[in-house]
Specification:
Strand content: over 45%
Order of helices and strands: EEEEEEHEEEEEEEEEEEEHHEEEEEEE
Mean pLDDT: 84
Number of strands: 25
Largest sheet: 21 strands, mixed, barrel
Low-confidence stretches: 1-45
Structural class: mainly beta
Number of helices: 3
């Protein structure tokens, strides 16, 4: 059994003094996400900030074993309740500009890296969000957990969603790609009795869930855009969750919960667990533990970090010939299991770690956000799923407008045999930013 480890190193730019922050030059600050029941995984932009920032990065290094250089322009605009982030990455190697980065319409719409607009009707806020999805989690994470929509290197996507939120309720609906969506997700949650009782319903559908991938002469087939040729069928999923919050976070809040998940047409499960939260001056500790009772044809956290890859090719050892939908039909006997995670967050530090026992393999994960001195920040995403995946990014401020950048990414691309394979890139260079943000 292979242990899957996920390391999420979040952005530190919000934790550094305003006059000493290494300017990020990237659009991730307004990337869309949904709140985790304990904490959102996205650093929020400064409320009410107004201005514009134009940035560019020039980086040289290696790309899939060859020398390559990349140019990364970006633009951020904030005007009160409107936030917009545009960005692109143009990679050139010995064969010229990498054409697969720009051969689909969704690659061009992915220039939209972040968008947020909101208004209010009385005490009810209505908002739109779009762009990259980073660490999207609904409820307690029984169904949708840490989902990202751009793990596949060759197919850029820009999400779009709507949020309606009031004092005692929150609803959200979104699609993974507003131009050519295949995944639609939504959640509605309410609170009652002074926020003691909390109920939620999450669900969605993969409108083109692959059941099998076509093969020719023992090799998987892909189209001209590097998309596996698959037999597709719609698939829906639904979760109902409830929890009772006992105590206050300033002291200790304990919240037992129950989540019931139905992968429509396949398996079902009950996730029984609890959360603990304790607030300290300037910091927060929380932990979550659960036990899962499930049928054979079920996978926890079905829409997770690796979903966009595994819908075509399972990353579970020994099952790479199956799609994730087909993997559900592979009976595993006794597959009930546990999940545990804990974290500590403050202005300067954000750490989180955990482990989950799941069919075919256990998976572990961790998250950390640490300043490297007053002029540097480290951010990134690293996972182990049949091999290491993810990214790491280090930026060191040279002045108010210039910074050094060094990064490493290891993601997935379609190989010559029609199967996904890792592709790495690493480099270092210089960034420049100008503007009023």
């Amino acid at each position: 059994m292979v242990l899957h480890a996920v390391l999420l190193l979040g952005s530190l730019v919000g934790a550094l003094p305003a006059d000493k922050r290494p300017e990020p030059g990237g659009p991730e600050a307004v990337a869309t996400t949904a709140e985790h029941p304990v904490e959102s995984s996205t650093t929020a932009p400064r409320e009410g900030a107004r201005g514009i920032r134009v940035s560019s990065e020039s980086v040289a290094g290696g790309f899939d074993g060859q020398f390559a250089a990349s140019f990364r322009p970006s633009l951020e605009l904030r005007a009160g309740t409107l936030e917009l982030a545009l960005g692109a990455r143009i990679t050139s190697g010995t064969d010229g500009v990498r054409k697969r980065d720009w051969d689909e319409a969704s690659d061009w719409t992915h220039i939209l890296r972040g968008f947020r607009a909101k208004g209010a009707i009385g005490e009810v806020e209505v908002g739109l969000r779009g762009g990259d999805l980073g660490g999207l989690t609904f409820g307690h994470g029984a169904l949708v957990r840490d989902y990202v929509n751009n793990l596949d290197l060759d197919h850029g996507r820009a999400s779009m969603g709507m949020i309606v939120e009031g004092p005692l309720f929150r609803t959200e609906a979104l699609v993974d790609d507003f131009l050519a969506p295949h995944l639609a997700l939504g959640r509605a949650g309410i609170e009652a009795f002074d926020h003691v009782l909390r109920f939620g319903v999450s669900g969605g559908a993969d409108v083109s869930s692959p059941s099998s991938v076509a093969e020719a002469m023992g090799r998987r087939t892909a189209d001209a855009f590097g998309v596996p040729v698959a037999t597709e069928r719609g698939m829906g999923f639904l979760t109902v969750d409830a929890e009772v919050a006992l105590g206050k976070p300033a002291e200790v809040e304990v919240a037992p919960y129950l989540d019931v998940v139905n992968l429509l047409g396949f398996g079902r499960a009950a996730h029984v667990g609890g959360r603990v939260r304790k607030d300290f001056p300037g910091a927060r500790f929380d932990a979550q533990a659960e036990w899962r009772f499930q049928s054979d044809d079920y996978l926890p956290g079905y829409v997770d970090f690796t979903y966009d890859i595994e819908r075509y090719q399972s990353l579970t050892p020994g099952l790479s010939q199956l799609t994730k939908r087909a993997e559900l039909a592979a009976a595993r006997g006794n597959v009930n299991g546990f999940r545990f995670e804990a974290g500590l967050r403050s202005r300067w530090i954000d750490v989180r770690a955990g482990i989950e026992d799941r069919p075919g393999e256990p998976r572990g994960f961790g998250k950390a956000s640490l300043p490297l001195g007053p002029y540097a920040r480290l951010s990134g995403l690293l996972a182990y799923a049949g091999g290491p995946l993810g990214a790491a990014d280090l930026r060191v401020s040279l002045s108010k407008r210039t910074y050094l950048v060094a990064d490493y990414t290891r993601r997935l691309t379609i190989g010559e045999d029609g199967s996904y394979r890792p592709l790495w890139a690493a480099g270092a260079g210089l960034g420049l930013t100008i503007g009023t943000l």
